[in-house]
Structure formats: structure tokens, C-alpha cells
Design brief:
Oligomer: single chain
CATH class of the largest domain: Alpha Beta
CATH architecture of the largest domain: 3-Layer(aba) Sandwich
Protein name: Methyltransferase domain-containing protein
Strand content: 15-25%
InterPro entries: Methyltranfer_dom, METTL24
Mean pLDDT: 83
Strand order of the largest sheet: 5-4-3-6-7-11-10
Radius of gyration: 24 Å
Helix content: 25-40%
Largest sheet: 7 strands, mixed
Pfam families: Methyltransf_22
Structural class: alpha/beta
């Protein structure tokens, strides 16, 4: 009799295990999603609805950001500037590199999230006829409208719209981002990715872009940019002077406009003078500590 009861209990337990497995397999993703949504309000607010993470993880992100941001400006020797300064202050769980290996590819934060946008917009400045980024991005994100700009004339009709123009601050025959978006009737649209590789002209470009607070400057989600060490040639003995303050000002400009660094990559063709950076914009509330365990008010 005891053996029969044990066998019955074992069968009953096995039955409940099988039923539980079936239920979890069918419903666990939905339940997990509901749990995440109900506990990720803070990250949604502070990322303008781009991320959804539980509050505990989001607070940890903020702590890591503060620690790295405070140690990012070191300066060092000229040919090691990028090695010594400005490491990533943020991480994207599913960041992905699109384009060829080496010079030409770019790191994008959580590509899969951009697939959820009905009609996203991507601008790529300075292609020099190398379209691997646009080509692969168009395959991953067929919902995106991709526009490429360069001083020389090229053709990328199969996967992007090409525009021959000189990018800058709107002076000296150049066109600013505002001018371009106005000409293309994109002024009211959100710019999901802004890719920049304009060989040192990024300083004037971003200074002009962020000089005025408006819809254009406040609605760019990700910036992928190659930053070059700024040089000033003096006439006396033809001495090269590196404008470190100009570089620091550029990174401060990104910070002041609520961008965080989520990727940094050396350009091995020019390792001492150029590095690739990827930024993502967060809500200004991210930069205010709202974790009771931390006494710092803001950064």
C-alpha cells in the first residue's frame, strides 16, 4: 500500500512538472514582458522611451556613468590623447556594428529597437563612395529612410538617397543640418541616426548644431562620429599646436546636450589622431541622481 501511494505521488508530481513546463513555455515571455514594463518606468522616462530596464539595473547604469564621466578628462601627451581620454560612459546591451570590418563600419545602439519604428530617418555625412554602412543598414532596417551626403558625386540608389553637398556650419558654401533638413522637408521628423565623418569639420558642424536649441538639435537619437585631434598650425617655425581645449569643449558640448558615450573604437589607419565614437541621447533627468542611496544631486 505504501509503495502504491509513493508511485501515485511520483506520477502526480511528474504530471505537475510537465504542466508547469508547458505553461511557462507558452506564457513566460508575456509574463516576463509584463513584469519588465511594470518595473521600468524610470528607464523609459530617462531614455525618452528607448530603454526598458528594471529600476535596480537602471540605477546601476547611472552609478557607472557618474564614475566614468568624472575620470574621463585626463589630457596626457598629444599622440595618446584618445587613448587617455573619454572612455564609454554607457553600454547598450545589444549594440551592433553595421558596415564592413575596419574603416567604414559603425556601432549602433540596439538595432532591433529601430525596427519597431514605422519610419525612421538616417543621415550619413561623408561617405567618400564607401557605402557598406548604408547598404547593411538598409538590409537590417528596411523601414528607415537613408540619406547620404558628400562633397563628391557618388551613386547609392539601391539602398540610399545620395546628395552632393558640402557639410558644415552653413557658411563659406557649406550647408548646415538645419538647412538640409529644411530642403528635404524633414524638419519636423526625428533623426534616429546621424553618422558623421567629415575629416575635422565636425567641430564647426556640432558647434553650429547645438548653438541653438530647437527641434532639430533636440531630436537626434544617436550620433556616430569620427573625431579628429584638432590641430592649429602656427606661423612661427611652422610648429604644430594641438587644441586640446577645443576637443574637451566638443565632448562637453555632447554632455551638455545629454549624450552619453556607448562605444569607442580606434581608427588604425590613423590611431593617434582619430577615434570613432558612438553617442546616444538620454533625457536630462538621467543626469540627475534620483536614487535615495546616493547623496549627489546632479552632474
Amino acid at each position: 500500500m505504501i509503495n502504491v501511494n509513493k508511485r501515485f505521488c511520483s506520477i502526480l508530481l511528474l504530471f505537475f512538472i510537465i504542466i508547469s513546463f508547458i505553461l511557462l513555455n507558452n506564457y513566460h515571455p508575456t509574463l516576463l514582458n509584463n513584469i519588465r514594463i511594470s518595473n521600468c518606468e524610470l528607464s523609459r522616462i530617462e531614455s525618452d522611451n528607448f530603454f526598458c530596464e528594471i529600476d535596480e539595473d537602471w540605477y546601476r547604469r547611472k552609478e557607472v556613468f557618474y564614475l566614468q564621466h568624472n575620470r574621463n578628462q585626463f589630457t596626457g601627451v598629444p599622440y595618446m590623447f584618445f587613448q587617455d581620454n573619454y572612455e564609454p560612459t554607457f553600454s547598450c546591451r545589444f549594440e551592433q556594428r553595421l558596415g564592413i570590418n575596419g574603416d567604414g563600419g559603425k556601432w549602433i545602439c540596439d538595432v532591433y529597437r529601430l525596427k519597431q519604428i514605422p519610419s525612421c530617418l538616417i543621415y550619413s555625412f561623408g561617405s567618400n563612395g564607401e557605402f557598406s554602412f548604408e547598404n547593411e543598414t538598409s538590409r537590417y532596417l528596411p523601414n528607415c529612410d537613408i540619406h547620404t551626403f558628400d562633397m563628391k558625386e557618388f551613386n547609392c540608389t539601391d539602398f540610399c538617397t545620395f546628395h552632393q553637398t558640402r557639410i558644415g556650419d552653413g557658411l563659406g558654401g557649406t550647408k548646415s543640418l538645419r538647412m538640409i533638413m529644411s530642403e528635404l522637408n524633414h524638419t519636423g521628423r526625428y533623426l534616429d541616426i546621424l553618422k558623421i565623418d567629415i575629416e575635422g569639420s565636425e567641430y564647426e558642424f556640432f558647434e553650429d548644431l547645438f548653438n541653438t536649441t530647437d527641434y532639430v538639435s533636440e531630436n537626434i537619437r544617436q550620433i556616430l562620429v569620427e573625431i579628429h585631434l584638432s590641430k592649429l598650425i602656427r606661423n612661427v617655425n611652422n610648429v604644430t599646436v594641438y587644441e586640446f581645449e577645443k576637443l574637451h569643449d566638443l565632448f562637453q558640448l555632447f554632455h551638455d546636450n545629454h549624450y552619453v558615450i556607448f562605444h569607442k573604437e580606434v581608427n588604425l589607419y590613423n590611431p593617434h589622431w582619430a577615434f570613432e565614437y558612438s553617442f546616444i541621447k538620454l533625457n536630462k533627468q538621467f543626469f540627475q541622481i534620483n536614487n535615495p542611496s546616493n547623496s549627489t544631486e546632479h552632474l
